[in-house]
Amino acid sequence: MDYLKYSGRFYAVGIVVLFNILRYYYYHLYLGITSDMNLFIFAPFFIIIPWWAGKQYDKAKFYSEIDPLTNTYNRRIVEKQFQLLARKVKRVNGQIGIVMIDINDFKVFNDTFGHHKGDELLIEFASLLKRYTSKGDLVARWGGDEFVVVVPNIDGNFTSTYGEGLHQEFKKIKISESTSIKASVGFAIYPDNGETFETLINSADLEMYTSKKFAKLTQKVDARKDYEHSR
């Protein structure tokens, strides 16, 4: 996902090579020209120039699909890829998992350590998600500190096993010796919770924020207990 594809370069070089093959046969078979030294003299340029032009296309396509900070997919491309996955999965009566993830208290982290450190945290968090996910999964930055993971071909235990695994991974990102990153996670299943990407995102988003509110409430209750215990 994170690597520049070569399709633009291959297409550009292929078209130029095909054109020159046709030109060669045109000179020899139709015009009767037995040798064309220019064809051999300029042959390297027939490869280098279209390769360079194709590379510019590949770069433009890559950066139009990728979030520049975290090197994950952006919102536009993940929705497009979901449509393709949904058509494939529907034919075999399969399921797709949509996972919404939001870093808890990210604003507090930004205010405390600065936006530069906040960006570093987002980059590290995105790298963690990409390491945790499988090859066929899609990881996207949805906006701010929110991420979306699209997981094709899930099983019945997906939400429990995937969620637990994510929370274990979050513990690996340390703010300090004793404090790790926490994040809220919400799930939606295609087609059980909806058949459109928008519906699924809204469902996962609602579950994620419910989880976030519960975590804050639990945190307040624990803080209250600690205070009363210390008196």
Folded structure, characterized:
This protein is α+β, with helices and mostly antiparallel strands and 231 residues long. Helix content is 61%, strand content 13%. The chain contains eight helices and four strands; from the N terminus they run ααααβααββαβα. It has helices at 7-30, 37-41, 43-65, 75-91, 106-113, 115-132, 158-170, 197-230; strands spanning 96-103, 138-143, 146-152, 183-190.
Number of helices: 8
Question: What value does the Rg take, in angstroms?
Answer: 26 Å
Run of helices and strands = HHHHEHHEEHEH
Number of strands: 4
Brief account:
The chain is α+β, with helices and mostly antiparallel strands. The protein is 61% helix and 13% strand.
Brief descriptors of the model:
single chain; 231 residues; alpha+beta; four-stranded antiparallel β-sheet; elongated
Topology:
Elements lengths: L6 H24 L6 H5 L1 H23 L9 H17 L4 E8 L2 H8 L1 H18 L5 E6 L2 E7 L5 H13 L12 E8 L6 H34 L1
Antiparallel strand pairs: 1-3, 1-4, 2-3
